[in-house]
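Q: Fold this one first, please.
A: Sequence and structure below.
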Amino acid sequence: MAVGGKTFFSGRRAYPGRIAPAIALWALLGADMAASEAPGRTAFLAPAHTKAVWTNESLNGAIQQYCQGCHNDLLEWAGLTLESFRVEEAAEDPVLAEKVIRKLRTRLMPPSTVKRPDEATYEALAGSLEERIDSAASQPDPGYRTFQRLNRAEYERSVRDLIDLQVDASAFLPPDTISHGFDNIADVQTPSATLMEGYLRAAGRISREAIGEPGAKPRETTFKVPRTAAQLRHVEGAPFGTRGGISVLHNFPADGEYVFKIVLHGTPTGQLFGSTAEAEQVEIALDGTRVALLDIDPHMSESDPDGLNLETAPIAVKTGPHRVAAAFIEKALGPVDDVIAPIDHTLADTQIGSAWGITTLPHLRRLSVRGPYNVTGVSETPSRRKIFSCRPISAAEELPCAKEIIQRLARQAYRRPLDRRDLDGLISFYETAAEEGDFESGIRGALQAILASPHFVFRIEQVRAEVEPGGSHRLSDHELATRLAYFLWSTAPDRDLLALADQRRLSQPQVLRETVLAMLADPRSEALGTRFAAQWLRLQDLDRMHPDALIFPYYDHTLAEALRRETELFFENLIREDRSVLELLTADYTFVNERLARHYGIANVTGKHFRRVRLPDEKRRGLLGQGSVLTLTSIPDRTSPVMRGKWVMEVLLGISPPPPPANVPDLEETKAVEGRRLLSVRERMQEHRANPNCNSCHRVIDPLGLALENFDVTGAWRIKDNGVPVDATGEMYEGSVLDGPAGLRQALLKRSDAILTSFTESLMTYGLGRRVEARDMPAVRAIVRRAAANENRASSFILGVVESAAFQKRKSGAQASSLSGEH
């Protein structure tokens, strides 16, 4: 017999130990195999109501009964066969065994269309496989990782801590490659000519800005304002009494005159966008002080000689970082006549309305700073104070002072003590530049060499000659300090951390543990929220999400930033207060400002600053109720149960849903109207699932996403979708009944072991800078077990990663970097 091109029966050939032809056919068609048993096969007898004695024979019988109907040598569904798989031999093929464990722990398999094991069987199978693999891992394999380079975020933070200068790495470096959800994975950080040129350009520009440029030539820096940025309310950093616009920190390279230019948004036909009954003005402020006031001609047009541009006369500015703001003068601070006032003012205090997004008032498009002109010198700046720890007063003092400065900066930049070769090389750069200029020119040349050095750009770890290829060894204390700092702070180790490494105390278990806890209490650990959690939860996808302005006119850039900040602060609080990781699902609190509180319908919150609030009910508890997640898993004009369900599976449970079959129509191709009414998303999903090719995937994914249907595209709560009452009920693939976000939350908590394992895998991936593989899973499970004994507190998971062999050791390999040097 042939079905779908596969032969399941042949009268000329016997298949000893294989599934009976009828069973195979029924499995292919999705039939329930409960009433059938393969001839010649021992039945699995372990009723749920009895406490079975689990032997290898009974465990293998369970796999035979529940798994091999599909995963056999004939069918090989999903490219997987378990026909020769034996529980007692799991450690011999850990990759395959870990796949089985993941499916069992998440209850994803067997599919709901066939007979499924009871809970006791699931636990026995998964536990037995884990025990056999973990017991065989007596010598943990730390895995191999190439050297890492500083990505954009790490580069910016490292430069800031080194010379007290805030830089924008995106101006020099190409976008970082995301692998396994993170931008710090070593094996995709391959150097290229373009990348290295970017690091060299950055070193030159940053060293000049840090020291100052007495001979600076005029150049222009432009800052763009998102089209949907709020233009009605005050912008943080702008002077009080203004609305909208932009506020930025800009580093001025020298004392001199600068011109500030603004460009306003226009209509498609070239006129000034926006209308007002009063004359509009834009204030230019420097560090909160007005330096210019520009009048807006309501009749200006792109066809004018100056277009929609306004610029100041030259303004004298001192060297260094200054807060520059360009904002509209606020015209109505109190009650207004809502008959003649612009519509934006009458909508300003409502929860919805265009006042929050693109208003009917003029909008700022970009701000440019051009200069310097008529340079008069260089003033003292925070960077110069950080760099020049000594000042020579004679020619004889210049070289000793230069050595002191260079040694101090290079030691912090290279994250280890310098040897004679390091120092001599940097001194030669100093001397060459000093000969062409002066002492400060020499320091700038040495600083440029430090910032361009592979020892700064790359996180190099020593390959020890005495270790055979494939062998492993412990990291040095300085290498451990570097891993630790970039894991918890996304920046280089500070002076205290390097001091512990100098004393070779950091690798002592108790000292390391105390150091980790102190680092988590440090404000710099906010990087775990803005870097790790943001990437793990895929918050970067918010930048690509632009809800339809006609359907969701109240959504704007300001709200998008608030949604992201809520989630970052939520995770930072989890770390700071050392709370249970399961509060990611159960927390009855969140962090909001006035803008976000209005969006959520939370009363008594005013002002731009975020504060912790208790949620009034269960619908918004944890991540599943946060607008960031709900928005990034939607599309512009409707919710997407598929994207939301997929996010739950991949991010929280750590499992990938089945890929869609070829030639499956998009949901948009299904009918959206029935009679005279629009169909809800759920109704359209039901229509879509009527296609058998679609149903196989959607029956697993859809219930997870449909449970969140009460949240619209922007995360606002709703009770109707296109006029149809929202139905958020369903059944999870493993049988749990879902009724809205609370039901989904409870169903996921039943799989808390899978959620904690997935979280630990992601945390370890980020901390190690490499993919977590099957060989790492014993360590992952050990971390989860130890954390359970400490109420699943966040610190337990972080300490578990830091104390693992994978974090503290390095494996030697044939691909070891030639940049590792002798240090």
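Q: Good. Now the second chain.
A: Here it is, same layout.
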Amino acid sequence: MLNRFRAPWPWLFALVLASPALAQSSRLPGAVEAALALRQVDGVKRVMLVAAHPDDEDTSLLALLARGMGAEAAYFSLTRGEGGQNLIGLELGEGLGVIRSGELLAARSVDGAGQFFSRAFDFGYSKTASETFGQWPRELLLSDLVWAIRTFRPHVLVSVFSGTPSDGHGQHQAAGLLARDAWEAAGDPSRFPEQLDLGVEPWTPLKMYRRTFFDPESATLALETGTLDPVFGRSYHQIAMDSRSRHGSQNFGTAQQPGPRQTHLAFIDSRVPSREDDPIFAGVDTTLATLAAPLGIDARTHVEAYRQAVSGARGALDVVAPARSLPHIAEAIGHLDPLIELAEARGTPEIRRELRRRRALLDEAALAVAAVRVELRSRSEILVPGQTAVLEARVWSGGDASVEAGAPRVDVPPGWAVTPMSPDEDAPPEDSGGFSRFFDRREEASHHDEAVPIEPGGLALWRYRVTVPADAETTAPYYLRNPRPGAFYDWTDDAATRTRPFQAPVLSGRAAIVIMGGGVEMPVSISSPFRYRGVDQASGEFWRPVQVAPRLSVRPVASHVIWPVSDSEPREVSLQLRSIDRGGVTGSIRLDVPPGWSVDPEQASFALERAGDETRLVFEVTPPASAVEGEFELSPIVTTPDGPLDAMDVTLIDYPHIEPRLMVASGAVRVVRFPIRVAERRVGYVMGSGDEGPQAIRQLGLGVEEIGPDDWTAEHLDRYDTIVLGVRAYEVRADLIAANRALLDWVSRGGTLLVQYNRLEFNDGDYAPYPIVIGRGRVTDENADVTLRLPDAAPFATPNTIRAADFDGWVQERGLYYPESWDDEYTELLGMRDPDEDVQTSSLLVAPYGDGLYVHTSLSFFRQLPAGVPGAFRLWANLLSIDARRWRGETAS
């Protein structure tokens, strides 16, 4: 039976949290929004969790603290997860870091916590803390964590890891050690004193705990997270699993199970009197009265009255008539404002921070219960230098309150120009277009730079023109502006962005409003970024951030070109040009090549009339006749009537579960010339999760076809000599699992199957012709010595002669998820090991099956090939070229 009745709060709250874009543009139901704000305006409680990666955080603890206890909670992640794999796309490295940073922000929008990062770049799996600190300067990362602590000022520090080998991953161990270091250093003014000149003060956390994921018997404190919160209609554990599910690139979708749940902590240290099993804030004076005591007796009176008013507002809050709490909120503000005046005159930074934060929260609560909505909107999503765009600010009194709204203030970067539009100016057409214009009433009334009264149910609208200067900076992530000097970012010293996920929105606004209703007259204000509203005809309205991009994107069709030194014939180099400027871009482009190289044509013209227009320009590039090895760069040079433009490859990383983010990279083509050959083979490829194997095969001059769900017939498979399975293919391709028997039959008929690494899910089925059990073994040292156990075997002998030197220059790691056991039918071809460990021999296994060959490799080709590592390409070419008949002849002899 269909249950047609649902309580209004839980489902509506879940709907709002279902999309990060919706959550950051739409408003929660008035009573819910006010209830959350009112939970945070009394006590002073702050907690920071410290760990290494996206997904290490305890989301249940964060949700309990931030949503349930009204505490400020934050997660400090050393890295952005750049060293992991990508289940949803091809991005790796910095691109994956942008995705996982966005996923953390999406998770925090659900569990209510804040987010901080260090400048560490996730260089991949490590096995010890010492190995990790060999890549990460320990003091550098400690300074980042200390900065975050001094900025956020937590009373309680929670380390997710212990700093011992029991943590597993060396980066986990490093996070545990850095948390202990920061516990001692953050309050010491002699540590990182240069930070004090940038506006922060020493801060000493009062209590420290550790999460007990790996040793539950050490827990001294259990916190109940399975309690159902009446405001949310869900438990904190359920909210946490909703938060956890935002990690889409890691395949972390999780059920939201009801029922009792607990999070466990181990007591580590305290600077206040407390027992190990005391509640988390025991011994920490979290009262506003204590914080405000130095302001004098007048402050004490106001604090008491303020707290009574807040209690009254909570008690009067009604889901059907939330405005009943408005007089109590007004009374609380009436006592808070004198406290703020006293604090500004003689208070500490701590009391000023806390009182200002409470004022902002009460303003949010007042607007929510009075049904006053402020919408700051841009008519353009992507701005380019030189463009003029239109911004709109709306104030709507959707309830019974009368409102007087001052003209909203628009905050822009230096050099930008803002001009209010007069009521008689015509607004430009909607960027979003679509069918919505037939249902959206025409809003002709606007106001100049003036305050206006708004009657109940009424709406006021202001419009502004904003002009982007010619030298406007793009909104690509701030930490990517400079090249990395190692396994850490060279980021700006700007105190406003340091340790933050991304820089602040490029356009923001502030509205000052007087609410008149319920016998009160209350001034409030709200700050918010301007965002773009679009309309999708299938799904409806959506909101996205406003970003600044270059006028033109120049993307090489192949950013890395593998070019055998024996090949001096011309090759085509293609550039995909796309206009980002609404007014279009015209000009010419040429390729700057190394001495001795030639290009035809020397210059090519282009004319793109509007944003989104694309064209492909093809240049024929000829290398010198002499066989010169090395790396070379082919750099596009763009000239327009307005002057030269930087040739930048502009990418919008855009997935439904995160906010879209721009990335900007050089449009140059990197050419790597070295000796390499490959046999003629017809190759089929089964795409896995986020690898660029087909492109690497095409770089070798071979044709390759991707095998889709309908291509598993024997007739279709017999078209190929070699079939390659992409990384983690059995984890993401249900059609492959269903067709595995047909694939092995194809091998037995004489095909060569090259299976790239899979994780433990591989052990759930009989996918290999002979038993293989995948383990967690890996060789993380990319410089680890490699032994060719059968140096004359076909994979090392033809068509390229492979030697140990071909393993020089590998990036991040040798391989991962090595088999821990395998049948005697397999031949082990390579030996390698990390320092102080046993040699692992299962990174490359070959076995005959019928008339064909089954090749299983855990080598990280998916990292080496996009990086253009010559030796990896040479071995890759040999594996593609391997001949089953020769292998059988060699093994028989």
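Q: Anything worth noting on the second one?
A: The first strand starts at residue 46 and ends at 51.
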